[in-house]
Specification:
The structure is a single chain. The chain is an alpha/beta fold and 258 residues long. It has 2 domains: 2-142 and 175-194 and 249-256, Rossmann fold (3-Layer(aba) Sandwich); 144-173 and 202-241, no CATH class. Helices cover 41% and strands 25% of the residues. The chain has helices spanning 2-5, 12-18, 24-33, 50-58, 72-81, 119-129, 147-159, 166-171, 177-182, 202-209, 213-222, 224-236; strands at 40-44, 64-68, 88-91, 105-111, 130-143, 186-200, 243-256. The protein has a 7-stranded mixed β-sheet. The longest helix has 13 residues, at 147-159. The radius of gyration is 18 Å and the shape is globular. The two termini are 28 Å apart. The mean pLDDT is 91.
Length: 258
């Protein structure tokens, strides 16, 4: 994962400003699932802290949240965001090598970051860090079909030289419940989905897309001005703003085996 963190250098401020968070109920569900008295939660691949902010707000005040992020730019914004909060500790760590003792956490989660991990080593490291009957949670925000967003995605798939199959890449962003249940260190895998909406105009949608490493790979090749012009042209062809985006937050979790 540490190599992949370089993809996001320079994007932390934009990511913090324009990426959506997660429903508080999703974090509360994970906290209730914990069967251990260890009140430490680890946010792996925390980025600039969008997920950490929601997690911190949703957990009881006696929990300590450890936000682990390997990217220097992301961790800079993350540390600044929680500089005055003694309930959040920021560390430099990647998913496959978490700088924490064995059985030290009651909750470990990854929010829209799992697809960057080396799966086998990550699951092994999660099993090591979690206390028995602690919870491993994987959250992902997925945007439902919308004509403008679909046109953006089609343009990215056509313009990108890094992605050969955009749709297949999207499907790899989270494990299935069956895959999670097969991991030897875990048991009782479950899933739940939360639905919500976001009203957004063309510029807001472009800003959202400019937080994506796939789009910045295109920007570096053809330039920011041409990228924005192409996306603005797509917006102009798709009717009146604002657009109503429908989102699903899918969370999957499993207990650490005793």
């Amino acid at each position: 994962m540490r190599e992949n963190a370089n993809r996001f250098e320079g994007l932390a401020e934009a990511y913090a400003a324009w990426r959506p968070g997660y429903p508080s109920a999703s974090f509360e569900t994970l906290a209730r699932a914990v069967r251990s008295d260890r009140r430490i939660a680890v946010d792996i691949g925390a980025g600039p802290g969008n997920s950490t902010l929601g997690l911190r707000a949703a957990l009881p005040s006696d929990w300590l949240v450890i936000a682990a992020e390997p990217g220097n730019d992301m961790r800079r914004v993350l540390a600044r965001r929680f500089a005055q909060d003694t309930g959040v500790q920021v560390i430099d760590a990647c998913a496959e090598a978490i700088a924490l003792p064995d059985a030290s956490a009651g909750l470990l989660l990854a929010c829209t970051a799992f697809h960057w991990f080396d799966r086998g080593p990550f699951f092994a490291e999660a099993a090591r860090v979690l206390t028995p009957l602690g919870v491993l949670g994987i959250l992902r925000n997925r945007r439902k079909a919308h004509p403008v967003a679909a046109a953006f995605d089609a343009w990215i798939a056509e313009t990108s030289v890094d992605i050969s199959d955009y749709a297949a890449r999207e499907k790899r962003k989270e494990p299935s419940v069956r895959e999670l249940a097969r991991e030897p260190g875990f048991m009782a895998a479950q899933s739940r989905t939360w639905c919500w909406t976001q009203e957004i105009d063309c510029r807001g949608l472009i800003d959202l897309y400019l937080t994506r490493s796939t789009v910045w790979a295109i920007v570096r090749r053809i330039g920011l001005a041409e990228t924005m012009q192409s996306l603005q042209t797509i917006c102009a062809a798709h009717g009146t703003e604002p657009y109503l985006l429908e989102w699903e937050t899918t969370e999957k979790w499993a207990l650490r085996r005793p």
